[in-house]
């Protein structure tokens, strides 16, 4: 019998479990968006008490949260595949990867895949998801741009960040994006974002724990083109609605109530997928 990988509660490693659980549930509930069988396989290999997550998984807002997870994966995968259509030998880079394997879902058979995260995260990833033949896991802080040197962008490069930049200072995101634009001309960066109201709600518990007073210093966007275009004049900035910009969600598994909440999120929370074409 295969030995399970133990995850302790109240550790950094535990933060990997919750998104993975979300991907499993979103895959079960909304397979038309993003079918992720790998998440269920990973859960079976982890020694962790999932009972508290299971007990909360049936309430309506939690199920809407799973829908958000599925939509995010669908949107970002759409953007990666779109880039690979014209750059089949490109490098696909998962920024702040955790235990997400979206890169593999988008694999066209010729691209290269890089997954980047903190060293302790990559340690867990190497144990649970060893890199494949055209895949590299890089242990590094994203803000330490020495990782640029490891990326082979000779065939193009598409970068994506899933639920990552909400936890970055605005100045950090600007510095990183500007550096990427200079280092990877012809590349693409896509990530999800929202306005300050939404970010305050998302970070509420974390901000209290970290004793952060100025939530406004963290990355949020009201109007992507206006606010972000000045970051790098060589790039084109565009955005699409997060919840309904790539899929109308008119599937029997999505209730009318959830579609209504989705419209609210896009309209009033400015939930967006933002794209930089360098």
How do the helices and strands line up, and which of them pair or pack?
Elements: E1 5-6, H1 14-29, H2 37-44, E2 46-47, H3 51-55, H4 60-86, E3 91-95, H5 102-105, E4 112-117, H6 119-128, E5 135-139, E6 157-161, H7 170-183, E7 188-193, H8 196-202, H9 204-210, H10 224-228, E8 236-241, H11 256-268, E9 272-277
Parallel strand pairs: 1-2, 3-4, 3-6, 4-5, 6-7
Antiparallel strand pairs: 7-9, 8-9
Helix pairs in contact: 1-2, 1-4, 8-9
CATH-defined superfamily: Vaccinia Virus protein VP39
Q: What structural class do you assign from the helix and strand content?
A: alpha/beta
Helix content: 40-55%
Strand order of the largest sheet: 5-4-3-6-7-9-8
Could you tell me how far the N terminus lies from the C terminus, measured between alpha carbons in angstroms? 48 Å
Largest sheet: 7 strands, mixed
> Could you give the order of the helices and strands?
EHHEHHEHEHEEHEHHHEHE
Radius of gyration: 18 Å
Q: How many DSSP-defined strands?
A: 9
- The fold-level CATH name is Rossmann fold
Characterize the overall form: globular
Question: What is the CATH-assigned architecture?
Answer: 3-Layer(aba) Sandwich
* Domain tally: 1
Number of helices: 11
* Mean of residue pLDDT values: 92
Beta strand %: 15-25%
Low-pLDDT stretches are none
The CATH class label is: Alpha Beta
Can you tag this structure with a few keywords?
Rossmann fold; 278 residues; alpha/beta; 11 helices
């Amino acid at each position: 019998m295969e030995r399970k990988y133990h995850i302790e509660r109240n550790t950094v490693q535990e933060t990997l479990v919750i998104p993975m659980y979300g991907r499993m549930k979103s895959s079960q509930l909304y397979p038309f968006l993003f079918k992720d069988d790998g998440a269920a396989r990973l859960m079976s290999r982890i020694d962790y008490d999932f009972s508290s997550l299971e007990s909360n998984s049936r309430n309506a807002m939690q199920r809407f949260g799973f829908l958000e997870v599925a939509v995010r994966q669908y949107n970002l995968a759409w953007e990666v595949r779109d880039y690979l259509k014209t750059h089949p030998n490109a490098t696909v880079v998962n920024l702040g990867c955790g235990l997400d394997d979206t890169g593999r879902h988008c694999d066209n058979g010729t691209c290269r895949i890089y997954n980047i995260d903190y060293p302790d995260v990559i340690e867990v990833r190497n144990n649970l998801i060893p890199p494949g033949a055209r895949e590299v896991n890089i242990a590094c802080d994203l803000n330490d741009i020495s990782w640029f040197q490891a990326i082979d962008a000779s065939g193009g490069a598409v970068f994506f960040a899933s639920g990552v930049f909400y936890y970055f200072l605005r100045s950090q995101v600007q510095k990183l994006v500007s550096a990427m634009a200079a280092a990877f001309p012809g590349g693409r960066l896509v990530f999800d974002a929202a306005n300050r109201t939404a970010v305050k709600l998302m970070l509420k518990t974390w901000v209290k724990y970290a004793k952060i007073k100025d939530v406004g210093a963290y990355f949020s966007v009201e109007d992507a083109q206006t606010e972000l275009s000045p970051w790098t004049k060589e790039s084109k900035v565009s955005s699409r609605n997060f919840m309904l910009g790539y899929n109308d969600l008119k599937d029997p598994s999505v209730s009318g109530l959830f579609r209504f909440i989705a419209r609210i999120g896009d309209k009033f929370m400015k939930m967006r997928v933002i794209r930089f074409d360098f």
